[in-house]
Amino acid sequence: MKLEAYAKINLSLDVLRKREDGYHEVNMIMNQIDLKDEVTLTEIKSSIRIECTNPKVPTDSSNLVHKAYSIITDKFNIKRGVKIKINKKIPMAAGLAGGSSDCAQTIIGLNKLWDLNLNQIELMDIGAKIGADIPYCIMGGTALAEGIGDKLTQISDFSDKYILIVKPNIDVSTSDVYKNLNLNDVKNHPDTESMIRAIHDDNIYKVANNMINVLEVVTMKKYPIIEDIKKKMIDKGALGSLMSGSGPTVFGIFDDYEKGRDCELWFKKIIKDVLFTKTI
User: Fold this and answer.
1) CATH code for the domain in which residue 269 is found
2) Which of 16, 76, 131, 249 would bridge with 167, disulfide CB 3.0–4.6 Å?
3) H-state helical runs in the chain
4) Which residues constitute the domain of residue 118?
5) Are 134 and 27 members of one domain?
6) Same domain, 145 and 250
7) Are residues 117 and 199 in the same domain?
């Protein structure tokens, strides 16, 4: 069974407050893009075996895919095994939810492979036990995430918009970014309601003007290259540019295919992970 695990970008990301349990209350809009890993599930006699085309991806119990297998086999008392091969195309530690998306497709795949007949809500509940982005990756499309990222609302489709992805050669820890976030340092918060209206109207210009990610105050301070990439994208014709998630990936949104391609070629001369794609 071969499944497609799509990456996501944050069109906006707001942090409202830090809760007593240490988690942060967020308000963010996510959209999947046409950049994907391939996850292949093959039944074996017992246990789980993970293989990945990227040697940096762990294949032990620390992999989210392994956690999904453990939760499902425990919950439903399943003694069968599975080999999971991940053909990795989404950059790691990039703020693009690659690992979460692989895990989401594993949950969906095991549900089909083992005829568990779970509905989407039940699949998302399993995902929520593993990671904050996984329920969204199961749902897909364009969505508003609230709470700790667990309250999801599907919003209007915002597909077929040209997106340039640039990931500088640095890895960012999401937990470190949130740990170092001081909300007093945040001067601009996104207007989430305006963003939802702009998406509903399919207005790429208003979406581009409303793109704000409050985590930039932390990640850009440590890695100024992120701000440099954003500025260069705007110079090269992007309508707007933003860091996705906790970074370090930056994306630009374009209304012109040729400008997007020209910008991609410019960045490819200096950065390895560059991809011209679109929203789905």
Assistant:
1) 3.30.70.890
2) 249
3) 64-75, 98-113, 120-128, 134-139, 174-179, 192-200, 204-209, 216-222, 225-235, 257-268
4) 2-154
5) yes
6) no
7) no
Among the listed residues 145, 87, 137, the one whose alpha carbon sits nearest the alpha carbon of residue 108: 137
Determine whether 8 is an active site residue. Answer: yes
Choose the catalytic residue: 14, 133, 161, 232: 133
Strands 273-278 and 81-87: unpaired
Is 60 part of the annotated catalytic residue set?
no
- Provide the CB-side half-sphere exposure for 6 (13 A, CA): 18
Mean pLDDT per block of 10 residues along the chain (280 residues) reads: 97 91 89 98 95 95 96 96 97 90 98 97 95 93 91 96 96 88 91 97 97 96 96 98 94 97 98 96
What DSSP character marks residue 11? E
Phi-psi category of residue 26: left, alpha or beta, with phi > 0 → left and psi -120 to 50 → alpha: beta
Contact between 273 and 166 under an 8 Å Cβ cutoff? The reply is yes
pLDDT at 94: 86
How much helix, strand and coil, in percent to the nearest 5, is found in the chain?
35, 30, 35
pLDDT value, residue 209? 96
